[in-house]
Amino acid sequence: MELLRSLQITMAEEVLSISGLVLLLVAAWGGDKASRLISILSVAVLAACALIAAPALCGSASGADVSAFGGLYRADAFAAFAKLLIYVGAGVTLIVAPAYFERVRSMRAEFPILVLFAALGMGIMVSATDLLTLYIGLELNSLASYVLASILRNDDRSAESGLKYFVLGSLASGILLYGVSLTYGFTGTTNFDGIRLALAHHGLGTGATFGLVFVLAGLAFKISAAPFHMWTPDVYEGAPTPVTAFFATAPKAAALTLMMRVSLEAYGAQPGAWQQIIIFAALLSIVIGALGAIGQTNIKRLMAYSSINNVGFMLVGLACANQPGAAAVLVYLAIYVAMSVAGFVAILMLRDANGEQVEAISDLAGLSKTRPGLALALACVMLSLAGLPPLLGFWGKFVVFQAAVQAHLVALGSIAIAASVIGAFYYLKVVKVLYFDEAADKVKGSSDIAHSVLLVLATLFISPLGYLLTKWLGGLAGNAAAALFHFA
């Protein structure tokens, strides 16, 4: 009976697993000619998994009622919120990828299957309530991601990005695993609730502190937080653009929510120990992301540094170590996923007359004169990432700063606000190139219907119209954050 209940709770992961294996057989027999069909079916699978996960979020599921396999997995509202973002990111990737890969004649049947298995790993990550479950999910996602980054076999940049990601990712996994072993050695358990109780009763000794530091360092790599950000610009630039869009959305959401669960559940009894680490990583990420982007000439590398910068702002909310801070992070994360979708779909539409990708920022000069709709969407993305009102990116920053002030972290919030001014410089520089420079007339490629529809939807969401959804989004984020504090 307990097994059947656990299987029912883990239904989304089972659907992904079985569907991935079946589609793998289809790919084996159908070859690359079946890639578009497999992509369509994969999107349908992700949509089905989203429908499975949604009731837990709407119903504010939490605690032991949604725990499976003896406390190794929890399908609560928090996990459901993260999974919906993951499935959206993965689904968008599968929608935009076929047109891109067919232009470069490199569409492979295994691509959508790798995305499915990566989504499976991420689903396990965000539902993990044990360090071993966490590691299994993390590695499943990472192994698929390494292959995705280097999927263009005839492209040296793609191969280089995959190799860099693999080497540095393996190092981060080793650091994380060492932290897990230390935590187990000094608390006697790998279960999050067990770790929390052990730390509450016995305090955080030197050994457990080292375990905490190593675990957070390994997770910081996965969210590309400074000083573990070094892989991000090279991987974002070298990987195929649909893969970069995937990395900027689904794995980012999974890793950040995983860090929240580990910090607030496993180490929640000793927030003072990890708050300092999070604050340091937040401020360093904001500064490095802003300063590193200023000299970039490639739009994908600029988005990589923007990713580092925005992760820093989200960590400000996590540093609050309370429920309003966690809810603020989730609101910001949802808005950031929408901004990333709009940004990378717009980048995919930047093509020259030969269909080649246009990535140099200087080649976008005067785009407003030749492709006004595309230029407007890209400008909205940049201004929203900068956090300028009335675009929705401002609301993400506002709720995070508000949570920091309410948690008496006024100094942290003030420094973050001041540093955000630096970031505004390079976002405004892109807008200036789009609207005020003499037209370079490099972007001439036609747009695919799927790309245009996705771009319009994502741009409308981050436009002032998105404020109509803030109450609804805040309510869902509040439900999800409350699930992290079921022990209170």
Automatic annotation (TrEMBL):
The chain crosses the membrane at residues 6-30, 37-57, 77-101, 113-138, 165-187, 199-221, 273-295, 302-319, 325-350, 374-395, 407-428, 449-469. It is a multi-pass membrane protein. It comes from Novosphingobium pituita. NDH-1 is composed of 14 different subunits. Subunits NuoA, H, J, K, L, M, N constitute the membrane sector of the complex. This is NADH-quinone oxidoreductase subunit N. It catalyses: a quinone + NADH + 5 H(+)(in) = a quinol + NAD(+) + 4 H(+)(out). The keyword tRNA-binding does not apply. Keywords: Cell membrane, Membrane, NAD, Quinone, Translocase, Transmembrane, Transmembrane helix, Transport, Ubiquinone. It is found in: Cell membrane; Endomembrane system; Membrane. Its main location: membrane. NDH-1 shuttles electrons from NADH, via FMN and iron-sulfur (Fe-S) centers, to quinones in the respiratory chain. The immediate electron acceptor for the enzyme in this species is believed to be ubiquinone. Couples the redox reaction to proton translocation (for every two electrons transferred, four hydrogen ions are translocated across the cytoplasmic membrane), and thus conserves the redox energy in a proton gradient.
